[in-house]
């Protein structure tokens, strides 16, 4: 199966790319330094994470808008100062990391970053520019407008993926239905299905590849699904079960 090799250096990895989703969230320590250390020890170099900005502008690697679900803290991150957010513990044990701290702690890692809130957009792009991280970070969001704004600010140096509107447009294009698509994205990062509707099939993958886009699928934790997607020619898989994905890729001779 042919995979797309794009010009952007972020994607300089033999396909398929294994992504540790939130560092490998299967044990409940998602988006913590402990999770990312475990992924690195398992041989992963592509990490997926999310960012929110605190009330005082600190960029936190965290998925939810509130602390409530996975930490012993309470409240909306965007309404709290970092001095309060830093006191929370994931699963009661692990601190929330600043994204900049993770960049320093894992200097060889590449990061797929979902901008979860508008207020995190400028701090993230500023951080990428200030530290010259163009080769190490790909920016995504469910909001196509948000990721387009990030790309407009940063220019072609920034690797971006499609938001929901871009994915819908690509799906329509796969059926030869005209649809506008943002120029400059390097990947379509998609669920295998959405609301019971299949997103990723051979037609979708072929259309993406014809446009020079890679296809990365989230969040895939079952080995049979991983195998089926790899057979379709997807270029990357994001998983909570980093042990299972490594086993599948090893068995296929596809672990780089």
From TrEMBL:
It comes from Streptomyces xanthophaeus. This is Glycerophosphoryl diester phosphodiesterase. The lineage of its organism: Bacteria, Bacillati, Actinomycetota, Actinomycetes, Kitasatosporales. InterPro entries: GP_PDE_dom, PLC-like_Pdiesterase_TIM-brl. It holds the Pfam family GDPD. One of its GO terms (molecular function) is phosphoric diester hydrolase activity. It comes from the Bacteria. GO terms for biological process: lipid metabolic process. Residues 16-249 form the GP-PDE domain. Transmembrane segments: none annotated.
